[in-house]
Amino acid sequence: MNRKQFIQTLAPIITAIPLMSSAMQLNQLHQFIPDASESMNNNQKMPVLFLGHGSPMNAIEENEFVQTFRNIGKEIQKPKAILCVSAHWETKGTFVTAMEHPKTIHDFGGFPQALFDVQYSAPGSPALARDTKELVKKTEIGLDEKWGLDHGAWSVIKHLYPLADVPVIQMSLDYSKPPQYHYDLAKELGSLRTKGVLIIGSGNMVHNLGMIAWDKLNADNFGFDWALEAKEKMNHFIAHHDHQSLIQYTSQGRAFNLAIPSPEHYLPLLYTLALQEKNENITFFNDKAVAGSLTMTSIMIDKA
Prior knowledge:
- The protein has helices at 3-10, 22-29, 36-39, 64-75, 113-116, 126-135, 151-160, 179-187, 225-239, 243-247, 254-259, 267-273, and strands spanning 48-52, 81-91, 94-97, 141-144, 168-174, 197-203, 281-285, 289-290, 294-295, 298-302.
- The longest helix is centred in the last third of the chain and has 15 residues, at 225-239.
- Helix 4 (64-75) packs across helix 7 (151-160) and helix 8 (179-187) packs parallel to helix 12 (267-273).
- The protein contains twelve helices and ten strands.
- The chain is α/β, with parallel strands linked by helices.
- The radius of gyration is 18 Å and the shape is globular.
- It has one domain (46-302): 3-Layer(aba) Sandwich (Protocatechuate 4,5-dioxygenase, Chain B), CATH 3.40.830.10.
- 32% of the residues lie in helices and 17% in strands.
Protein backbone atom coordinates (compact mmCIF):
# COMPACT_ATOMS: atom_id res chain seq x y z
CA MET A 1 0.00 0.00 0.00
CA ASN A 2 1.44 3.41 -0.91
CA ARG A 3 1.05 6.55 1.18
CA LYS A 4 -1.81 7.92 -0.91
CA GLN A 5 -3.74 4.70 -0.48
CA PHE A 6 -3.00 4.71 3.24
CA ILE A 7 -4.30 8.24 3.66
CA GLN A 8 -7.45 7.27 1.77
CA THR A 9 -8.03 4.41 4.19
CA LEU A 10 -7.92 6.90 7.05
CA ALA A 11 -10.49 9.21 5.48
CA PRO A 12 -13.51 7.78 7.27
CA ILE A 13 -12.02 8.58 10.69
CA ILE A 14 -10.24 11.82 9.74
CA THR A 15 -12.71 14.76 10.09
CA ALA A 16 17.32 23.78 11.45
CA ILE A 17 18.80 25.65 10.89
CA PRO A 18 22.15 23.97 10.01
CA LEU A 19 24.36 23.63 13.07
CA MET A 20 27.25 21.69 11.51
CA SER A 21 28.22 20.40 8.11
CA SER A 22 26.37 17.41 6.64
CA ALA A 23 29.53 15.35 6.88
CA MET A 24 29.98 16.15 10.56
CA GLN A 25 26.34 15.28 11.29
CA LEU A 26 26.63 12.00 9.43
CA ASN A 27 29.88 11.05 11.17
CA GLN A 28 28.39 11.70 14.62
CA LEU A 29 25.11 9.98 13.89
CA HIS A 30 26.84 6.87 12.52
CA GLN A 31 27.62 6.11 16.16
CA PHE A 32 24.02 5.12 16.80
CA ILE A 33 22.68 4.62 13.27
CA PRO A 34 24.88 2.12 11.40
CA ASP A 35 24.92 2.48 7.63
CA ALA A 36 22.64 5.51 7.67
CA SER A 37 24.19 6.77 4.43
CA GLU A 38 23.30 3.51 2.71
CA SER A 39 19.70 3.24 3.87
CA MET A 40 18.63 6.88 3.61
CA ASN A 41 19.62 9.97 1.72
CA ASN A 42 19.24 13.67 2.45
CA ASN A 43 16.02 13.87 0.42
CA GLN A 44 14.34 11.07 2.36
CA LYS A 45 13.06 12.42 5.64
CA MET A 46 11.26 10.50 8.32
CA PRO A 47 7.76 11.79 9.03
CA VAL A 48 6.94 13.49 12.32
CA LEU A 49 4.03 12.42 14.51
CA PHE A 50 1.86 13.91 17.20
CA LEU A 51 -0.09 11.11 18.88
CA GLY A 52 -3.09 11.69 21.10
CA HIS A 53 -2.35 9.01 23.68
CA GLY A 54 -5.48 9.29 25.84
CA SER A 55 -6.03 6.84 28.67
CA PRO A 56 -3.20 4.48 29.68
CA MET A 57 -5.70 1.69 29.00
CA ASN A 58 -5.15 2.26 25.29
CA ALA A 59 -1.92 0.33 25.83
CA ILE A 60 -3.85 -2.92 26.32
CA GLU A 61 -7.32 -2.28 24.91
CA GLU A 62 -8.39 -2.88 21.33
CA ASN A 63 -10.05 0.13 19.68
CA GLU A 64 -9.95 2.22 16.53
CA PHE A 65 -7.27 4.52 17.94
CA VAL A 66 -4.67 1.82 18.53
CA GLN A 67 -5.60 0.12 15.26
CA THR A 68 -4.62 3.31 13.46
CA PHE A 69 -1.34 3.53 15.41
CA ARG A 70 -0.54 0.00 14.24
CA ASN A 71 -1.39 0.85 10.64
CA ILE A 72 0.97 3.82 10.71
CA GLY A 73 3.77 1.69 12.13
CA LYS A 74 3.34 -0.68 9.18
CA GLU A 75 3.05 2.06 6.56
CA ILE A 76 5.93 4.40 7.29
CA GLN A 77 9.57 3.46 6.87
CA LYS A 78 10.89 1.74 9.97
CA PRO A 79 13.06 4.23 11.87
CA LYS A 80 16.59 3.70 13.09
CA ALA A 81 15.59 5.27 16.43
CA ILE A 82 12.79 7.25 18.07
CA LEU A 83 12.94 10.52 19.99
CA CYS A 84 9.72 11.00 21.96
CA VAL A 85 8.54 14.16 23.72
CA SER A 86 5.94 13.00 26.24
CA ALA A 87 3.49 15.02 28.30
CA HIS A 88 4.49 12.94 31.31
CA TRP A 89 8.07 14.01 31.81
CA GLU A 90 8.30 17.57 33.10
CA THR A 91 11.57 18.91 34.49
CA LYS A 92 13.36 22.14 35.33
CA GLY A 93 15.71 22.30 32.39
CA THR A 94 15.67 20.01 29.36
CA PHE A 95 16.96 16.43 29.51
CA VAL A 96 17.21 13.38 27.29
CA THR A 97 17.32 9.80 28.53
CA ALA A 98 20.80 8.36 28.06
CA MET A 99 20.68 4.83 29.46
CA GLU A 100 21.20 1.61 27.51
CA HIS A 101 18.07 -0.06 28.87
CA PRO A 102 15.27 2.37 29.85
CA LYS A 103 12.80 0.99 32.36
CA THR A 104 9.05 0.90 31.73
CA ILE A 105 7.49 3.52 34.03
CA HIS A 106 3.94 2.90 35.24
CA ASP A 107 3.20 6.50 36.14
CA PHE A 108 -0.49 6.11 37.00
CA GLY A 109 -2.77 4.51 39.56
CA GLY A 110 -6.13 2.81 39.87
CA PHE A 111 -5.89 0.68 36.73
CA PRO A 112 -6.04 -3.13 36.32
CA GLN A 113 -2.99 -5.19 37.15
CA ALA A 114 -2.71 -6.20 33.49
CA LEU A 115 -1.66 -2.64 32.67
CA PHE A 116 1.03 -2.64 35.37
CA ASP A 117 2.31 -5.94 34.03
CA VAL A 118 3.19 -4.41 30.65
CA GLN A 119 6.92 -4.14 30.04
CA TYR A 120 8.11 -2.40 26.89
CA SER A 121 11.73 -3.42 26.62
CA ALA A 122 12.95 -1.24 23.76
CA PRO A 123 16.63 -0.36 24.06
CA GLY A 124 17.82 3.15 24.68
CA SER A 125 20.52 4.97 22.73
CA PRO A 126 23.15 6.81 24.77
CA ALA A 127 24.83 7.81 21.51
CA LEU A 128 21.67 9.43 20.15
CA ALA A 129 21.24 11.19 23.50
CA ARG A 130 24.78 12.58 23.27
CA ASP A 131 24.33 13.64 19.66
CA THR A 132 21.03 15.35 20.50
CA LYS A 133 22.80 17.22 23.28
CA GLU A 134 25.43 18.40 20.81
CA LEU A 135 22.86 19.30 18.17
CA VAL A 136 20.80 21.63 20.38
CA LYS A 137 22.37 25.06 20.86
CA LYS A 138 19.39 26.92 22.32
CA THR A 139 19.88 25.45 25.78
CA GLU A 140 22.06 23.00 27.69
CA ILE A 141 20.62 19.49 27.36
CA GLY A 142 21.19 17.23 30.34
CA LEU A 143 21.80 13.49 30.04
CA ASP A 144 19.45 11.56 32.31
CA GLU A 145 20.19 8.06 33.64
CA LYS A 146 17.13 7.61 35.89
CA TRP A 147 13.86 8.23 34.04
CA GLY A 148 13.10 5.60 31.40
CA LEU A 149 9.95 5.40 29.25
CA ASP A 150 6.75 6.78 30.76
CA HIS A 151 3.30 5.79 29.54
CA GLY A 152 3.09 8.80 27.24
CA ALA A 153 5.83 7.08 25.27
CA TRP A 154 5.44 3.32 25.63
CA SER A 155 1.63 3.14 25.54
CA VAL A 156 1.66 4.38 21.93
CA ILE A 157 5.07 3.23 20.68
CA LYS A 158 4.21 -0.36 21.63
CA HIS A 159 1.48 -0.28 18.97
CA LEU A 160 3.77 1.21 16.34
CA TYR A 161 6.59 -1.25 17.04
CA PRO A 162 5.29 -4.16 19.13
CA LEU A 163 8.58 -6.06 18.91
CA ALA A 164 10.32 -3.27 20.89
CA ASP A 165 13.16 -3.45 18.39
CA VAL A 166 13.63 0.28 17.76
CA PRO A 167 15.80 2.28 20.22
CA VAL A 168 13.85 4.98 22.06
CA ILE A 169 14.97 8.06 23.94
CA GLN A 170 12.76 10.67 25.58
CA MET A 171 13.19 14.43 25.78
CA SER A 172 11.68 16.21 28.77
CA LEU A 173 9.50 19.31 28.89
CA ASP A 174 10.97 22.25 30.78
CA TYR A 175 7.93 23.44 32.74
CA SER A 176 9.56 26.81 33.45
CA LYS A 177 9.68 27.87 29.78
CA PRO A 178 7.03 29.52 27.56
CA PRO A 179 5.56 27.87 24.45
CA GLN A 180 7.81 29.77 22.04
CA TYR A 181 10.87 28.26 23.75
CA HIS A 182 9.62 24.73 23.10
CA TYR A 183 8.79 25.49 19.48
CA ASP A 184 12.20 27.04 18.83
CA LEU A 185 14.04 24.20 20.58
CA ALA A 186 12.22 21.63 18.46
CA LYS A 187 13.37 23.32 15.25
CA GLU A 188 16.94 22.44 16.16
CA LEU A 189 16.06 18.74 15.97
CA GLY A 190 15.12 18.85 12.29
CA SER A 191 18.29 17.28 10.89
CA LEU A 192 17.57 14.07 12.83
CA ARG A 193 14.74 13.36 10.39
CA THR A 194 17.20 12.69 7.56
CA LYS A 195 19.18 10.32 9.79
CA GLY A 196 16.42 7.80 10.36
CA VAL A 197 15.03 9.25 13.60
CA LEU A 198 11.26 9.29 14.06
CA ILE A 199 10.30 12.24 16.28
CA ILE A 200 7.03 11.80 18.18
CA GLY A 201 5.13 14.26 20.33
CA SER A 202 2.73 12.44 22.67
CA GLY A 203 -0.05 14.21 24.54
CA ASN A 204 -3.60 15.39 23.87
CA MET A 205 -4.59 18.67 22.24
CA VAL A 206 -7.72 18.94 24.39
CA HIS A 207 -7.05 17.55 27.85
CA ASN A 208 -9.14 18.58 30.85
CA LEU A 209 -9.37 15.67 33.30
CA GLY A 210 -11.29 17.78 35.79
CA MET A 211 -14.28 18.00 33.46
CA ILE A 212 -14.51 14.42 32.20
CA ALA A 213 -18.06 13.15 31.63
CA TRP A 214 -17.68 9.83 33.40
CA ASP A 215 -21.11 8.71 32.21
CA LYS A 216 -19.98 9.18 28.59
CA LEU A 217 -16.75 7.19 28.67
CA ASN A 218 -18.07 4.72 26.11
CA ALA A 219 -19.87 7.23 23.90
CA ASP A 220 -18.52 7.59 20.40
CA ASN A 221 -17.04 11.01 19.61
CA PHE A 222 -18.70 12.88 22.49
CA GLY A 223 -17.30 16.29 23.28
CA PHE A 224 -18.58 19.31 25.16
CA ASP A 225 -19.25 22.36 22.99
CA TRP A 226 -16.10 24.11 24.17
CA ALA A 227 -13.98 21.01 23.50
CA LEU A 228 -15.31 20.67 19.96
CA GLU A 229 -14.82 24.39 19.35
CA ALA A 230 -11.21 24.20 20.53
CA LYS A 231 -10.60 21.07 18.44
CA GLU A 232 -11.91 22.67 15.27
CA LYS A 233 -9.90 25.86 15.80
CA MET A 234 -6.74 23.89 16.51
CA ASN A 235 -7.27 21.80 13.39
CA HIS A 236 -7.85 24.94 11.34
CA PHE A 237 -4.64 26.56 12.59
CA ILE A 238 -2.68 23.35 11.93
CA ALA A 239 -4.10 22.88 8.44
CA HIS A 240 -3.29 26.49 7.53
CA HIS A 241 0.21 26.39 9.03
CA ASP A 242 -0.75 29.11 11.52
CA HIS A 243 1.73 28.05 14.18
CA GLN A 244 1.84 31.42 15.91
CA SER A 245 -1.82 31.19 16.89
CA LEU A 246 -1.11 27.78 18.39
CA ILE A 247 1.99 29.04 20.20
CA GLN A 248 -0.11 31.89 21.59
CA TYR A 249 -2.84 29.50 22.76
CA THR A 250 -3.54 31.45 25.95
CA SER A 251 -4.87 34.30 23.80
CA GLN A 252 -7.42 32.20 21.91
CA GLY A 253 -10.37 32.55 24.29
CA ARG A 254 -12.49 30.51 26.66
CA ALA A 255 -12.60 27.27 24.66
CA PHE A 256 -8.80 27.07 24.54
CA ASN A 257 -8.54 27.95 28.23
CA LEU A 258 -10.83 25.05 29.11
CA ALA A 259 -9.11 22.71 26.65
CA ILE A 260 -5.63 23.49 28.01
CA PRO A 261 -5.89 24.08 31.77
CA SER A 262 -2.21 23.13 32.04
CA PRO A 263 0.23 22.96 29.12
CA GLU A 264 2.01 19.62 29.46
CA HIS A 265 -0.31 17.63 27.16
CA TYR A 266 -0.42 20.43 24.59
CA LEU A 267 3.27 21.33 24.32
CA PRO A 268 4.30 18.09 22.53
CA LEU A 269 2.12 19.29 19.64
CA LEU A 270 4.40 22.32 19.25
CA TYR A 271 7.47 20.07 19.03
CA THR A 272 5.82 18.25 16.14
CA LEU A 273 4.62 21.35 14.29
CA ALA A 274 7.99 23.09 14.58
CA LEU A 275 9.47 20.36 12.40
CA GLN A 276 7.08 20.92 9.50
CA GLU A 277 8.94 22.05 6.41
CA LYS A 278 7.64 23.91 3.37
CA ASN A 279 5.25 21.91 1.18
CA GLU A 280 5.00 19.00 3.62
CA ASN A 281 1.59 17.41 4.07
CA ILE A 282 -0.45 17.26 7.27
CA THR A 283 -2.65 14.21 7.78
CA PHE A 284 -5.19 14.17 10.62
CA PHE A 285 -6.27 10.88 12.17
CA ASN A 286 -8.06 9.64 15.32
CA ASP A 287 -9.81 13.02 15.22
CA LYS A 288 -12.44 12.28 17.83
CA ALA A 289 -13.51 13.58 21.22
CA VAL A 290 -13.61 11.25 24.22
CA ALA A 291 -15.61 11.63 27.46
CA GLY A 292 -16.49 15.25 26.76
CA SER A 293 -13.21 16.93 27.63
CA LEU A 294 -10.48 15.02 25.76
CA THR A 295 -9.56 14.63 22.11
CA MET A 296 -7.52 11.89 20.49
CA THR A 297 -6.66 14.03 17.47
CA SER A 298 -3.31 13.02 16.02
CA ILE A 299 -1.30 14.26 13.05
CA MET A 300 1.40 13.06 10.70
CA ILE A 301 3.71 15.48 8.88
CA ASP A 302 5.27 14.00 5.79
CA LYS A 303 6.59 14.90 2.36
CA ALA A 304 4.12 15.81 -0.35
